[in-house]
Design brief:
Blueprint (H helix, E strand, L loop, with lengths): L2 H9 L23 H16 L5 E6 L4 E6 L8 E5 L10 E5 L4 E5 L2 H5 L3 H8 L1
Antiparallel strand pairs: 1-2, 2-3, 3-4, 4-5
């Protein structure tokens, strides 16, 4: 695989798409968190670690979605999962937060708005 084709796969760009036009998900392509997305998630994660609420995380890149799992302890089930599923972008939104019990806590089109869900918990942890 040459370098140009790996960029298309990692960036989810279909052949002929330009970066300015936006990335479009390709069929059978692995979904990854892009660097700006991961920076936003890790920023919230770092604040919650500093507050003593979260202790560990895991990142999974799958065929249809990418998952950032958040743990209180590494041996437990994840407290939250931040999921990117580009196939749902035109419907409910590509992003969702799922709780420990599998319930969808928040869904949206923009990651920064979705991550505001954790603001209330951060305020409680600081008090």
């Amino acid at each position: 695989m040459n370098e140009a084709s790996s960029i298309h796969i990692l960036g989810h760009m279909a052949p002929g798409d330009s970066k300015k036009g936006g990335a479009k998900p390709r069929a059978n392509a692995v979904v990854y968190f892009m660097r700006p997305e991961l920076n936003q998630i890790l920023n919230v994660y770092g604040k919650m670690v500093a507050a003593g609420e979260w202790r560990d995380y895991a990142i999974d890149h799958l065929m249809d979605n990418a998952v950032f799992s958040i743990f209180r302890r590494a041996s437990e089930m994840p407290l939250y999962r931040i999921i990117k599923e580009p196939a749902l972008a035109s419907q409910q939104g590509a992003w969702r937060i799922m709780g420990m019990d599998g319930q969808i806590l928040k869904r949206g089109h923009k990651l920064d708005q979705l991550l505001r869900y954790f603001d209330r918990q951060l305020m409680k942890a600081v008090d």
